[in-house]
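Re: weekly structure request thread

Next one in the queue (583 aa):
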Amino acid sequence: MSQNDNENSDLFFRTIPEPDTQKDTAEHLSPSESPAPETRETPVEHQYETAKIRKKRSRLVPVAAIIILLTVTVAGVWYVLSRGKNSNTASVNTESLEALFDFSSPINEAMGLKEISELLSTQSAKMEASVTISSIADIPDASGIGVRYMLLRDMDKKKTSADVSLSYRNAAVLSAYLYADENDICLKIPTLSSGVFTIGSSDIGEQIKKSPLFIESMKDSEDDETMEYLKPYFDMLDSFNFDSLFERTDMDGNGSLLPVVLNKLASVYPEDFKKIKTGITYKDIDADANRNKGTIVTISEESIELLIKDILTLALDDKDCQNFLKGYFQTYYSAFTIKRIEGMSFDDFTEQIFSQLRIGLTSAGNAFAEYFNQDISFTVYKNTKGQLVSLTSENTVEIDGETLDINLYITSGSTVNPADSMHFRLECSAGGQTLNLELVNSCSQNSETIKHNRSLIVSFDDESFVLNHNRTYNTATGKYEGIIKISEGPVILKLNGTLNKAEKNGDYSFSLDRLDIISENETLFSASGQINISKLEEEIARPSGTEYRIFEMPTEDLFSIMESISDSIDSFEKSLAGYGFGE
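Done, posted below.
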């Protein structure tokens, strides 16, 4: 960070007290208990003075103001509606929040998709699937290409396998069997060889470097840059963690970072927590036409600033909150292969993200301190069940003499379950230009048919972008239809299927009747298939055949096997003509 960055961080980032090693490691010291002078917090009132005196300008002030204001409004809504204005508890009641925003899809519930996800993520399971191509535009020979695979995972014995086969017009073409346990990874491709190619399941990079073939190939090399170039690749291979394939994922989890932060706020900053509560006032108003109870909630400027300061600090510096975020970062890191190839460890990767987030949020926090000097009010209506029916928050910010209007609206069109027809709209207007962000969620059902539609709408003046995801499910027939479409866009993704079986014991069968990719009324791609999921009941077998430990074999033996495989590939290519492909 530059010196200015460090100065900025004094405004909206605070010191997180380290846990006392003499106490429970999960318990955090309050600021006043921190024994080390260098980690002691500046008194809150002094921080307010600092924020008013040392204000920094941002070139992205309107964007920062929108982000900060929206964060505060959502946090305020979450706090008020999930806790209740008379609550004295220190933790957020996430159950009441789920009742307030019940966005669980009735289609997912009817089809048992949550149970299936839990089976695949937490238990030993078997999944069989097949896909057959019906057509690909401009490639008539593609019709009849089929792929079948069977995946097995034994969570207790830590074994897994994948059996994959390729066919063409019902004729077998190629197959492969992959097996892995705590010691070895094995691959067998019967079409090419009767042998089983095996490597160790850990330190794969080290195995390669010690292999006779690699040593032989590097023997005459005098260029140290070659090893330097290959090092990140070896590090990436060594970082493969076999045990991660058997981690049981908590499907429920915390759901969102916000309740984690708010729960921590009360324990880490108890005095701030009390001040924030004191700065929130409530005024009951007349019920609406549907007898929904109305309340005007106002959050004081002081509570807003304190809430933002603590949220930003906790979200990025508190260990529990960091661990929560790292769970999301891990998936991104695993998929973002280039970072691993570059030799960046996961710890370095997350440190870089936190550093960038801290700089960006510091700038946003400072912009907010400079330009937003007012309370926030929003009007809330809730039904007799305590569920949100509507919320309105309209605010105006003056930025360099220009007025910025920031309005948030949440409305429902359902009297049974408000979340079944919920409409979120954020409006930002300045200088005659308006940016609208909308999310529309709607559900409807009768005795047999359930419909669930979601739309994301982004509009700026006369231009707009709309993403629609529409789903329909018939509980009597098991028929399912899903359509994803970008408004004014040329491509539509359409899926039709039938749920044949969904039992609580883990037996699930779904027929993919038709999967189409359509552009301008022309079908570019069409396929059909089948998916079966069940609990694992069989033993995962190691492939049979002569094993070749390819990183331990003498080079002459390995070359002999490679020549045999090359001959098999030539024979395989010739046999393809017999299937009619290319005619």
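Residues 221 and 227 are 10 Å apart (CA to CA). Confidence is low (pLDDT under 50) at residues 1-10, 19-60, 84-97.
Next request, please.
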